[in-house]
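Lab manual, section 2.4: Encoding a predicted structure.

Procedure: take the sequence of the chain (320 residues), apply the prediction step described in section 2.3, and record the output as structure tokens. A sample record is shown.
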Amino acid sequence: MQELGAVVDRVRASVESVIEGKPEAVRIALTVLLAEGHLLLEDVPGVGKTMLAKALAKSLDCTVRRIQFTPDLLPSDVTGTNIFDQHQRDFEFRPGAIFAQIVVGDEINRASPKTQSALLESMEERQVTIDGTSYELPSPFMVVATQNPVEMEGTYPLPEAQRDRFMARISIGYPSPDAELAMLDVHGGANPLDDLAPVAHAHDILKLIELVRTVHVADPVRRYAVDLVGATRTSPELRLGASPRATLHLVRAARAAAALDGRDYVTPDDIQALAVPVLAHRLMPTAETQLSRRTSEQIVLDLVARLPLPRPQGPAVRRG
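Recorded output:
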């Protein structure tokens, strides 16, 4: 775990040198990376969504591609296409922008639903199929997508299947006055991203991912995660609860969070801390719930508060 801590500290410091006053957002981004997931950043324009995604990408010595999603973007622009080579008298595959280790998808909900769906297979299967031929994506592979709130003009809400592919969703939020003052110093001159250099290599990330997979999850903690996700399916405030994929994502993210804290076991606190970012974006409140202005985040917090914690049974379940 010491090796993990040293690498993560370098990456965290690099990203936080650009993103002022948002340590929790940076932590969630690192958690999702080490848990082999994908991250959705949702907030109003101008709060640093794309900056966070780019800072994470530049801090890692990985191949990086940026996709600016627009209404006229085609699915083949994302996945690639076969081009006929007149000299070879054969079709040649031209990889799309998805063929990178870190893919930054900017304003994903400004693209058409057809183009959004082009990400589905790649995010889950880590491969792309064109004309019946499958092409493996590089490893590690992470999509960091940004989107504006659906109430904003010119946006296409992500379908349920696509939202479910993202391990976590977070909102950056407005900075505090002190952080905004510090931002003027950092961003007042040249682009701070220009000064960022890679502080970790792809092979470092792969080793850390393997280490995270070894983090122990005791049976009572597994049951707690299953019960929490199950509670979303029976809540009268929701017309769509979280899927079994959400349970897998919650436990995988909890493993990564435990490793970031220097532990080789998951506690119920890890599950609780990740419940909102991992579950809320997958839920669909009923019409009555929406009229009462109750959010998915509030519902998840209420479920966490009501669900009994597992009884301590040794260090693997001990709280905190």
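Check your result against the sample. The chain has a mean pLDDT of 88.
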